[in-house]
Amino acid sequence: MERKELGAAIEAILFTMGEAVEADRIATALSVDVEVVREVVRGMMQRYEREEHGIQIIELEDAFQMCTKASMYEHLIKIAHVPKKHILTDVLLETLSIIAYKQPITKQEIEAIRGVKSDHAVNKLIEYNLACEVGRMDVPGRPILFGTTEDFLRCFGVSSLEDLPAIEPEKLENFKTEAEEEVNLTLTIEP
Fold first, then answer.
1. What is the pLDDT confidence band of residue 125, given thresholds at 50, 70 and 90?
2. How far apart are CA 51 and CA 75, in angstroms?
3. Is 19 helix (H, G, I), strand (E, B) or coil?
4. Is the model's pLDDT at 179 over the cut of 70?
């Protein structure tokens, strides 16, 4: 298959699927090497970025998705209904960051870190498709494990979880110290 024909086939696949498609699935469907698929798609990504297009291809953990460029949203809003905007409160952001950095994680582990019940926050994040069930822990009771979704990556503009900002060691120490002081303060106040 020629590169132009391969590019057209990949473009058709990404357009039709409407969601992220793994590079190896595309390679299998087109009977080509996965590295060739990655090379062709990345060339297409550069072309869409360089030229005046209203669409782009994004990469999400070795999967590719065709989507609208953010600069085109105002035009889309004029023709479509205004999409429902999800509001991420501080509680939701805190819970989401715990899930993102500690995944896979149980609700009990989230609550142990936050110090409060987290049912509502976790349920809202699932409703917003930013978090999802990724399995069950192999212990008695088999608690549900939670992780982030492709929508999480898309919304926060990261290609993979490895692209999340690292927490600086001194900030981590400050957090630990503050938490210990808070625990000690709680212990001295309680009778």
1. very high
2. 18
3. coil
4. no
